[in-house]
Amino acid sequence: MKIRLKPIKLKAFFATGLCLSLLWACSVVSPSINSFAEAEQYLKETLLPKISISTELVSDTDAYNAVIPPLVEIVPDPETYPLAGATPTNDSNIVYVEVYSSAEKANAARKDERWLVDVAEAFNKQQQQLPSGEIIQVGIRNIPSGIGEQIIAAGKGQPAGYTPAHALWTELLKANSVPNETISEGLVTSHAIFALRPQVYAALEQNGEVTFDRLMDAILSGEINKIGYSNPYIASSALNFLYTSLWRSAGHDQDGKPLTLAELNSPEVGSLFNAFQQQVTLTTPTYLDLKQIWLRDDEAFDAIVMAHQSFVGLTQQRGFEQFKYVPFGVPETSPLVVFDWTTSAEEEALQSFVNFATSEDMQRLATEQGYERTDYIQKGDFPPLPSGDVLQAAQSFWKQRKDGGRTVYMEMVVDTSGSMDQGNRLNAVKDALRTASSQINPGNQVGLVSFSDKPTIRVPLAPYNELEQKRFFTAIEQLKAYGGTALYDGLAVGIAELMDKQSLDPEGQFSLLLLTDGERTTGLSLEQLEGVIKESGVRIYPIAYGEVNQSQLEAIAALRETPVYQGTPEKVELLLKDLFQTSL
C-alpha cells in the first residue's frame, strides 16, 4: 500500500485532535488492485470500516400503506431545446415558421452537425417573400427525433414542420393519431451503420465481403461482443436497427415482405434478439454518448450503431482514420412533414425553404458536413417502411426484453448535502425519481443510498414489484438536504452492495447512478476508491447537477467507460427517464 504525505492547515489539524507534534497527515491511496476479489477485499476490509454509515429503512408497514399517485408520462417542454435561425415575432409583415429538427443536423454548437442551421441562416438572409408579400423566416429547434415525436404526439408542441432523421418517426406519429403530410421526401441523405474498429473489420474480411448479414452472424455467435447501442425511443439509428434486425430475424431479408405484429411473438425472433442483447456492452440515450466514449478510448467498443453522417466526422479525428462501417436499414433522408395545424401560408413558406435546402449550393454544404449518396443508398435495396403500429410494438418488445434474460441491479446514490436545498434542486430530483420509476422493469433490483456528511442506506437492492415501488416512493419522500458532501463514502457504500449481488449473480448487469451538485468536502477521496471502481464490475453514470468538480466526474466515468451527464432541475426528469429506460 502506498502512503502519500501532505501538509494540513493548522485549523484542520487542531480540529482532528491529533498530536501537536505532527505536522503531516497521512492519506491512504488505493493499492494496486487487479481483480474483482482484490477490489472487494480492499473495499470491505479497509475502506468501509473508515465510513460512518447510517441506515434509515422504510418498514413493510409504511410501504404497504403508501399511496402511489398516478404517474404522468414525462414529455419535455420544447422551449427548453435550443432554437437557431429566426425567432418568433409579432411583426405582421413576417411569416415565421418553426421546424423541429433531429439533432445531427441542427446542433448549432458543432460545425459537423449544424447543416440545417446553416441553411436556415442563409435562407433568412435572402428575405424571400410569399406572393402575398410577407417575408419568410425559419427557426430550427434542435430536438432529437424521438423526443420531437413524443412532444408532438402529446400535444405539447405544434411546430409548423418536423424533420426527423427518417420516416419511421412520422409513421409513429400516425400511429399516435397525429396525421402528417410529407412535403419533402428528403432534405439530405444518410443512413444507419455499424461503425467497427479496424481490427474487427479485418477479421470479418478474412471470410469474404463484410455485409450486414455477415456482421450480424458474427455478433449473434459471440465473435463480436462489445457492442454500443442507444435508446430506440429516442435515437434514430437505434430505432432503425431495432426494426431492421427484427425484420431480418423474421426471414424478410429473403422475401422482402414487411414485419408484422404477430411475428414479434415468434420464438425465433425472440431468440435472436436475446442473443444480440447478450453482446451489448452499454446502452445510452443517444449514439452521440457512445461516440464521446469512443473518442476517449477507441477500444471501449468493437462496434456501435450510429448514423453514417456522424461517422464521417468520427473518422476525421486522430486515431479513427482507419475505422470502417457496415450500412443497414431504412435510409435516413430527413423528410419534412407538415400537420393539420400548419396554415397554408406556413406550408407555402416551408415549400420555399425546401426548394432552397435542396438547391445545389446547400446540398454541396451538406456533403461537406458528411452527407453522402453512398453505394448503399444508390443500390436501393432497403427494408420496406413499416407501419407505426409495428414500430410501437417493436419499441415495447425492446423495453421488455432488452436485458437478455439477465437481472439488472442499479444503485441510486443521491447527493443530499446542504447545497441541494438551493434552487429547487432536491425537490426536482425527488419528482424525477418518482416519475422515472415507471420505466423500471419488474424483477430488476433497485436500491437507494443518499449522502451528505455521511451515507445513509434507504432502500436495499431487492426485486422491483408493487411493494418495492411503494418503499422506494416513501424513501424518496424522506430525503432532506443538509450538511457536507461525503461523495466517495456514498459511492463506496453503493458499490459494496452491488458487489455483494455480483458475487451471487455473476451474469447480472450492475450499474450505479451517481447524482451530485457539488464537490467532495469530507470522507474518502477518489484516489482511495479508483482501484475499486475499475475492478468492481459496476458501470457508474455520473450526473453533474450543479457547480460540480467536472474533472472528478470525468475521471469516475473514464474508469468504467461511461459519459458524464449534465442535469438541471428543469431537465432532470427527462434525463432520469432516459437512463432508467435504457438501464432498467
TrEMBL record:
Residues 409-584 form the VWFA domain. Residues 1-25 form the signal peptide. Coiled coil: none annotated. Keywords: Signal. The keyword Transferase does not apply. SUPFAM superfamilies: Periplasmic binding protein-like II (SSF53850), vWA-like (SSF53300). The gene is yfbK-2. The lineage of its organism: Bacteria, Bacillati, Cyanobacteriota, Cyanophyceae, Leptolyngbyales. It comes from the Bacteria. It comes from Phormidesmis priestleyi Ana. It holds the Pfam family SBP_bac_11. This is Ca-activated chloride channel-like protein.
